[in-house]
Amino acid sequence: MIVNVRLTHVKACLLWIIVAVLTVGVFPTASRAADADVVRLMFNPGIYDELPLMVAMDKGYFAQAHLDVRVTKTPGSLGAIVPYLARGDIDVAPQVMVPAFFNQYTEGFGIKIVAPLDETHKGWNDTVYFMVRQDLWDARKIRKPTDLRGMNIPKPTGSPNDFLSIEILAKAGLTVSNVKMNVLITGGATSFLPALINKQFDALSVVEPLVTQFEKLHLAHRWLGYQDVIPYYQTGYIAFSPSFARDHHDAAQRFVEAYLRACRDIESTNGKWTPELIDTEARWSGEDRSVIASIRGPAYPGVGQISVESITRQEQLWLQLGMLKKAVPINELMDESYAKAARKALGMK
Fold first, then answer.
1. Which residue from 128, 225, 260, 286 lies 20 to 30 Å from 300 (Cα-Cα)?
2. Nearest CA to 184 among 136, 152, 145, 223?
């Protein structure tokens, strides 16, 4: 049974999820110059680590680069955007190294990642945390990775969340066969809350800002993040469609430079929220400023350098789980020339 005292907080959390979905498509893009190149950008404003894109829009960095960035907001997962990029229906979108991204190369498409969206960094908040159900944590049933043996954890679907969970198991010398991974968690963010309330899982990887929300509700304990087990990890990347990279190289270059200007602004905060960043995150996500401020801080945006190690390890995991049929040459998935030129232009190391 659900404890009645929690009902108000649970409703508030559900309201946040609904608001994040309903804000899709609400905000206009920046003012458009007559000579600006059109860039079609798709992203989910409810995803915590996509702040650099929001900053670049709000500060007019894209407009200053003579880009007319037209945003399509989506409440879906980044993996679901792959077909839009592959077909050239959109030009730019964040991507994660899920099986679908590797498969697009195998199927003959040429989406390229050009810069990281975020990465682990000391002193900064992680985008995903492995959480233990609060009652199990309070009872000291789970306190070290070896305690996960026999516990119920969501069945892998090929997401960055799964990568964290399985790497934690590996640190304890465990595999998926040593835990109960029989049930998928479906329906996106809306499924995490009832799964915890109904004690469907003992532990699971959760994305921010839900991590902070679940802590406040005393439903789960924030335990281990990427920094604790995968210090080299990058969760997401900025990706270009094949046609955009081929036919609009100059506009693509200006996009990356404007994007890295926003990354540099965020990096200068040393992992702390500023009133301006809170305003931007709240404006795009539809969340209340107080909720944003309660999160430990923004995610580290990186400096535009892609970690081959991070991508390689994720590919290896999906191969081990049978989610990929064959390995893909990592260098064929990325093009660092844009970020290198942008860092030079901006005086970034």
1. 286
2. 152
CA distance 305 to 300: 13
How many separate helices (H) and strands (E) can be counted in the chain? 16, 8
Predicted TM-score of the model (pTM): 0.87
Give residue-wise pLDDT tens across range 290-344: 999 999 999 999 888 999 999 999 999 999 999 998 999 999 999 999 999 999 9
Contact present, 80 and 29 (Cβ < 8 Å): no
Residues 230, 180: contact at Cβ < 8 Å?
A: no
pLDDT tens-digit map of 151-198: 999 999 888 899 999 999 999 999 999 999 988 886 666 688 888 999
Hey, is 299 helix, strand or coil? strand
> Are 152 and 202 a contacting pair, CB within 8 Å?
yes
Asked whether 262 and 273 are in contact (CB, 8 A), the reply is: no
